[in-house]
Design a protein that fits this description.
The structure is a single chain. The chain is an alpha/beta fold. Helix content is 45%, strand content 12%. The protein has two domains: 165 residues, Rossmann fold (3-Layer(aba) Sandwich); 117 residues, N-(1-d-carboxylethyl)-l-norvaline Dehydrogenase, domain 2 (Orthogonal Bundle). The strands form two sheets. Strands 3-2-1-4-5-6 form a six-stranded parallel beta sheet, sandwiched between helices. Strands 7-8-9 form a three-stranded mixed beta sheet, with helices on both faces. Helix 6 packs across helix 10, helix 7 packs antiparallel against helix 8 and helix 9 packs antiparallel against helix 10.
Length: 318
């Protein structure tokens, strides 16, 4: 199979899926796609996508990507009535970028194998803005030969595509990553509140941090939200809680103590219990400030997110 001439199917065009499809279309790839709410996918048609009415219409594609929210969603679009793997034909490759349990992934993997379809687990690191900037990272597991075939397509979506091993090891990589994401964000919230309560603005502290050895792509691109309290959702507390649940379950299964992660999981749960479930998980900053008796206000200053120009030669504002 020549990946660059593949007929691509795509299931799920939420914030992440939408941005990932846009990159494939910008690279002149042939993409047919389905989304549960068709209206949320139709703006991709002018970019070259074909929007279909049913998952079944993607079964004859060479490679089908899935990017859905949870285990039940993946099972529904693959094994449910009208599912991808219940059609007369089946794709050669199924590339799943959802964050789901290893048990669900294995169930889909076995069903795919019966149909002659190879499942590659390909979870990603980043949000839609990171995708657009060309900075997405992808971890992939499954047969090495399958990875070699599909890697050129994944490289159109992300700047870093890492093969991590067989079966569902990429799921564990993603869970470990997202647990760390939550721990880092909680730690960042704590030190920001400490600095601000002592009289240092969030903008000044983050400018220093981002220029130090402790700065990272994540701390830079999260800085505008933390300084100006912009909690437009990129990843919600509910989704982060799900990943902590899965990550800590993996830790129990593998007998790995994770005391810092377990404590952070309780704070993530508190963010969900606050009722602010449609905002970004950066609301951890608000909760930390409240526990310290600090009232936060937007600083209303321009902060560089560090992403610059995207990987397609456009500026972020375009």
């Amino acid at each position: 199979m020549s990946a660059m001439n593949s007929r691509i199917g795509w299931i799920g065009t939420g914030r992440m899926g939408h941005a990932m499809v846009a990159r494939l279309l910008a690279a002149d790839q042939d993409v047919h796609l389905w989304n549960r709410t068709r209206a949320k996918a139709e703006d991709l048609a002018p970019l070259g996508a074909t929007v279909v009415d049913t998952v079944a219409e993607l079964a004859d594609r060479d490679v089908v990507f899935t990017m859905v929210s949870a285990d039940d969603d993946l099972l529904a679009v693959t094994l449910g009535p009208g599912g991808l793997l219940n059609q007369p034909t089946a794709p050669r490759y199924l590339v799943d970028s959802s964050t789901v349990s290893a048990e669900t992934s294995e169930r889909v993997r076995q069903a795919a194998a019966v149909r002659g379809t190879t499942l590659l687990a390909a979870p990603v690191s980043g949000n839609a803005k990171v995708v657009a900037s060309g900075r997405l990272s992808v971890a992939v597991s499954g047969p090495r030969s399958g990875f070699d075939d599909v890697e050129p397509l994944l490289s159109l979506i992300g700047q870093s595509v890492t093969y991590v091993g067989e079966s569902d090891l990429a799921r564990l990589v993603k869970l470990a990553h997202n647990v760390f994401l939550g721990v880092v964000t909680q730690s960042l919230a704590e030190i920001l509140v400490l600095a601000e309560k002592g009289g240092v603005s969030r903008a000044a502290f983050l400018e220093f941090l981002n220029s130090s050895v402790m700065g990272s792509v994540f701390t830079r691109y999260k800085s505008p939200a933390l300084v100006n309290l912009d909690y437009s959702p990129t990843f919600t507390p509910v989704l982060l809680r799900k990943d902590f649940d899965l990550g800590l379950a993996a830790a129990r299964r593998l007998d790995v103590p994770m005391p810092v992660a377990a404590t952070t999981a309780q704070l993530v749960q508190a963010s969900v219990s606050s009722g602010r479930v449609t905002e970004d998980f950066a609301i951890l900053l608000d909760l930390q400030a409240a526990s310290a008796g600090l009232a936060l206000r937007p600083e209303d200053v321009t902060v560089d997110d560090g992403l610059g120009r995207d990987g397609l030669g456009r500026s972020e504002a375009s």
